[in-house]
Amino acid sequence: MKKNKDQVLLDKLADAARTGTISRRSFMNYAAAAGLTASAATGLWGTSAAANPTSGGTFRWGVHDGNTSDTHDPGTYVTRQMIFLAHTHRSYLTMIEADNSLGPDLATGWEATPDAKQWTFKLNPDASFHSGKKVTSQDVIDSLNHHRGDASTSAAKALLTDVTDVTADGDNAVVISLARGNADLPWLMTDYHFAICPSNGDGTIDWKSGDGSGPYKIDSGEFGIRWELTRHDGWHLDGAYFDKVTMLVLNDPNARQTALVTGDVDCISLIELKTLALLERNPNVSIDNIPSGGAITMPMHCDTAPFDDVNVRNALKLAMNRDEIIEKISFGAATKGNDFHLSPVQPYWPDDIPQRDYDPDQAKSLLKKAGQEGLTVNLSVADSVYTGAVDMCVLYAEQAKAAGINIKVVREPNDGYYSDVWLKKPFSAVSWGARPTPDVMFTLAYKDDAAWNESRWQNERFNELLLQAKGELDDSLRAEMYREMCLLMRDDGGTIIPFFNNWVYARGKGVKRHENVAASWSCDGARAASRWWFEA
Amino acid sequence: MNVFVIIYYTLLLGGSCLAAFYNKRSAFLLLFSLTLVSFILGIVGGVGALRLVAICAGLLALSAMVAYAFREFLVAIAPTNLAKELRTAPLTAGFGMFIIFTYAIAGIFAPWIAPFGEAQIISSAFAPPDETMLLGADQLGRDMFSRVIFGARNTVALALAGTVMAFLLGALAGLLAATTGGWFDQILARTSDVIMSIPSLIFALLMLSIFGGELANNTTAFYLLTIFAGVTGLLVVTAVSERSVMGWIIGLAVLGGVSAAFALGMLVIFNPSEIILILVVAVIYSPRVFRLTRAVAGNVVVMDYIEAAKLRGERTWYLIRREILPNSTAPLVAEFGLEFCFVFLLIAGLSFLGLGIQPPTADWGSMVRENATLISFGDVTPLIPAGAIALLTVAINFVVDWMLHRSSGLKG
Amino acid sequence: MGDILGLVGKRLGLGLGILLIISAIIFFMVELLPGDIAEAVLGQGATPENLAALRKEMGLDQPALVRYFGWLANAVTLDFGNSIVTGESVVDTISSRLANTLFLATYAAVIAVPISIVLGVLVALLRNSIFDRVVNVLTLTSISSPEFFLGYILILYLAVKTGMFPAIASLSNDMTFGELLHRTFLPALTLVLVVTAHMMRMTRAAIINLLASPYIEMARLKGTPPWKVIVKHALPNAWAPIINVVALNLAYLITGVVLVEVVFVYPGIGQALVDAVSKRDFPVVQACCLIFAATFILLNLAADVGAILTNPRLRHPK
């Protein structure tokens, strides 16, 4: 399975390398993300120095997307600034390792009952908060309960609806009981909302003080502007090579690039893709171009004409030239989508589903079958969805003309897009962050009764499989079920997935990283501060 | 010493000598000081700098020739009275008129002039210029030249409509407030204070978020336009009717018809979301015009001749039209030239917030914004639309300067 | 003088009234905006249950009028409440931002106002000369590109290529005043370029407008040198429109610099306001807007008083 997947990716990569659409640097990153060993990758492209981290220095980190009105409340984390900060000053039960596998953070180990209804997490006895207090099971229980219950205001509440109880098993173990079996619970615990905060002792947590048990402690800072952090000497894991971390919020793409080029910061978390090729020429800058599970989707409401006809849906899927979109909108920094919401870097990705390609003629004939020739539809989009999202839709509209489809692109205001357009307009463009497993993603946005079933898709077989797969602990059976679900999404579903966007970030001179970087968030799974180091 | 440098200095020196011989003092000073400066430039910057100077001078000479020819052309075809006026226009004004004329032609005949459609994708992203694409391609592979041409149509029409409406409302209210004074003046002044006290970007953000989306349809646009025209017209009626009941009735009837006709006319030209944008622009800018008009007219109102006219028993409308307006045109015209380009920039700023013109419509402001980051790498793509805006702004203000000069009654 | 004091008093009273109206307008505009604060805070993570819980926690379950008057009752005692999102006091949230904004505005104004008035007088004196044209073309070009673009160009040449000034104006507490001036030079320069043209052209227009007046003709015939005609005779009568435009631009320096703040990463109040609007954080939006409005009213009042003081006719109405 794993081997097979690597082979497919490798073939793709070799192809890209031959046609010159990919730089050497990008090749190495793709190869690393595909899970290739360093030697396999270097065998294809030459040499790469072995990593030998050294301590010291102040890591100045320019991050995008910070808002003045952010808070330390893990339940309402929403901006990237807070996600980066949370992974720097707080800890989670589990974490996604640099090689994209699941690894320990506060929990040293975990095990489930055979029906996957009860999970026990053993806590690391060395872990402590910055205040000096040890991390105990009470802190974990209260932190998880912060996202549960009627009074909870957490955005992650939906993820924990199946949890019936969280109890302590001594000071250093926590038991989570579920209403239904969930084989993915340890993966779920990596979600950025589930940061562990110190308990107040009365069932609530102290999130206001900004105390955490992560690798760095906050010295001072202001939301949406900057943060100063110092290494937490009692951190329970290896790493955290920098002495200090300064996080600067740089919302403007030009400000970020300039700051990196002039040496005002050591790393920036997002590059404007338009300038990717130009920035790559700068010898002092290393660019990481990492495929991710984050997707751009275009949901069509399956209960609204004309999208209630599967032929129309498939015609719209066929009328998109994904290669051109990736070339012109993502400037190559994306993985082609195949209309099912699972990316090659995520677990259970089925490698044998044929790629859907641009075929205006077939789209035309499907429309004829549906009696919808010369179809006109409105496609809603906002600039904030993704850099170039409006351009992407304009491009798609041009491509669809060849299939006789007239797509009218409606630019909606950025402000309020997700409350007034998404889920409300029958055809829109949406950006999704990566979820750790297919189960989380499918349950969130494709299940018949999901609050965010953005395409209003109702497929009995899909929903049946989804429930079965959730409690299945046998990996190969599970993979088979996910494959079938993916096929259903692709051929019957109401969501077009043009591409999975890559994380594209850049490091300045002297900032080193390990061979592998996590694909869960930008900057090595948002853990750059604890995983990277300065060259001695 | 290469041939270019030798020709360069020969021409400059020859020119200076000729100018000196024919007693053209200013031309001589200009040419000879340029020669002296060139010595220093040549030493510091080398041949490259001299070439740059030569190119600039060439461009300047070219624009001067174009301006001269265009002015003579206008003089030749204009009726005698106008021709006399035009003859007084300085070369800069001629140049300005030429640019405005070019833009107008480009805008009106855009679909025929532009080689490609504004949304048509014809090549790869950022393709360099070649025979078919004069200015290369933009980020989607659309022809930059065609988009600049279409931009002239879309951007200028929007900005012009917005500015004109802001001026109609603002100037009328300002003149009326200055002339009548009293509580009427106070109400208008305080209303404008309220609108102006809300920062324009935030005000636009709020208004467009409310009226954008669902409400951007023909009916809403029609009502909003009618209301706007109605308010403007009400000011005229107030001034003309002079508190006579009959005047009010006739005025209101005419006003209703004119407003509706105006709204319908606008709906033919623009689509609803553009109309809402125009109205927001007009509402934001009219208080600025109002304040200025009121201040300028306020200085005129205290003059003796106004007092005399009032004692003569002249009506308000007459005072505004024949006494105050002619004496406060100059600052107003100057303001118009500037406000016009501020409107461009506001629209560009709004597209920063995702509220500007609907894609794929070409608009200069958004074209600058979309590719702005490329400038940090020395890529000139964003400079093309920015240059288009700058050229028009400069051109308009050249013409404005001339009119200002003329209306001030200064000779020479 | 007594008249003017009376006027100032009256205008200040009116100003308070205007602030009241503005607070109501802003409140109801924010209410009319699509989506509410709970939806904005939870973003894509909103479900009906946690929305309801959050609305309750934030007090959004009360009717809009109750909330407005609740806010107003506190505001008249100068208590601007707490941010709904963060729970921090609004005054704490924006006071340091406001100080930064005022600093930048002052910095830019100190450079821009004298330059534009002097330039305006100079080009009026040398009207239609090459100097006039060049200054005009340069200032017009500088205001005809969007200000963020102007910022990018300055960054390219003055920060990236030559390294004379830092590209980002992020502040820290241990800076000396000199460092501060150096670090914030580029945003200040951008603002100077943005506002100079307007003020300069108005000065020029206002002066030229007066040059044909009989008393100027008289002065000229007496043999007064041209610069003296302008500075001593024309300028005093041209102050009214000039002061007006200066006031407008000063207000702009405080209220309209969001884009410059973003481009140079300067922690000013504009960014805080835009953030608060996107989160529908009413108390912060309200406080920022009222500060802006008050700035505006005060500057306008100053302009009007200035206009009266400089025009004897207005000073002594018949």
From TrEMBL, chain A:
It is found in: Periplasm. The keyword Phosphoprotein does not apply. It holds the Pfam family SBP_bac_5. GO terms for cellular component: ATP-binding cassette (ABC) transporter complex; outer membrane-bounded periplasmic space. Its main location: periplasm. GO terms for biological process: peptide transport. GO terms for molecular function: peptide transmembrane transporter activity. It comes from the Bacteria. Keywords: Signal, Transport. Transmembrane segments: none annotated. Residues 103-449 form the Solute-binding protein family domain. Belongs to the bacterial solute-binding protein 5 family. This is Peptide/nickel transport system substrate-binding protein.
UniProtKB/TrEMBL annotation, chain B:
It is a multi-pass membrane protein. One of its GO terms (biological process) is peptide transport. Belongs to the binding-protein-dependent transport system permease family. Residues 152-404 form the ABC transmembrane type-1 domain. PANTHER family: OLIGOPEPTIDE TRANSPORT SYSTEM PERMEASE PROTEIN APPC, PEPTIDE ABC TRANSPORTER PERMEASE PROTEIN. It is found in: Cell membrane. GO terms for cellular component: plasma membrane. The chain crosses the membrane at residues 6-22, 27-46, 52-70, 91-114, 156-182, 194-215, 221-240, 247-269, 275-293, 332-357, 383-404. This is ABC-type dipeptide/oligopeptide/nickel transport system, permease component. The lineage of its organism: Bacteria, Pseudomonadati, Pseudomonadota, Alphaproteobacteria, Rhodobacterales. Keywords: Cell membrane, Membrane, Transmembrane, Transmembrane helix, Transport. It holds the Pfam family BPD_transp_1. InterPro entries: BP-dependent_transpt_permease, MetI-like, MetI-like_sf.
Automatic annotation (TrEMBL), chain C:
It holds the Pfam family BPD_transp_1_N. GO terms for cellular component: plasma membrane. SUPFAM superfamilies: MetI-like (SSF161098). It is found in: Cell membrane. GO terms for biological process: transmembrane transport. It is a multi-pass membrane protein. The chain crosses the membrane at residues 12-30, 102-125, 137-160, 180-200, 242-264, 284-309. The keyword Iron does not apply. Keywords: Cell membrane, Membrane, Transmembrane, Transmembrane helix, Transport. Coiled coil: none annotated. Residues 98-303 form the ABC transmembrane type-1 domain. Belongs to the binding-protein-dependent transport system permease family. This is Peptide/nickel transport system permease protein. It comes from Roseovarius lutimaris.
